[in-house]
Design a protein that fits this description.
mainly alpha; globular
Amino acid sequence: MLWNREDAEDATQEILVRVVTQLSSFDFRSRLKTWSYRVAVNHLLDRKRSAVERMNLNFVGLSEDLAEGLASDGPGENERSILIEEVKIGCTLAMLQCLDRPHRLAYILGEILDLPGAEAAEALGVDPSVLRKRLERARNAIHAFTRSYCGLVSDDAACRCNRRVAAAVRLGRAHPDALEFADRAVSFEEVRTAVRRAGEARRALEVHRTSRPRESSVELARRIVAAIDPDRG
């Protein structure tokens, strides 16, 4: 939802504290998991816009950025590099930022996390018909963008994660010595193969699902424990 790891960890801490401190208000009319998602959704909708959100990213601007940032001096298509994964994850998160918050939430809950429709609608506090419309619009937007610009999805698309590495480093969007997202080396070819195993209509989703940002640090867990129970912190 937030693109930036520090913002995401702060939000995670605040949401978990809310879940624990508001647990007495849980009325058992829904599943605890659904109620917890609802607490998270409310927090994220109320949260002030992040620095990335204030950039007002859109698919047109993102496509232009991708086109201008290709280079031939990056890793080869079969060369494994942690920077390829860093670029890929950053790009998938940027795609999500091109959706407004309601559509981003619908796509994350209903598509990436694959929550059942009724459960996702309840977590979002909307009628299932509203969720279906939001999810359809978000899905269509992501699908159209990846089909036109993402080489993982389509051979007709010019962008290749490995060819974005040099530009990402040069522009300060990827830092070899201070990675924001990745914790494993991949090659463009192996990710493309994984994405192409899905049917064409599901490839855009697979681009997101093959992105696995590194786990949060133990320090985040300590912060959360300290926030919930200061005596144990």
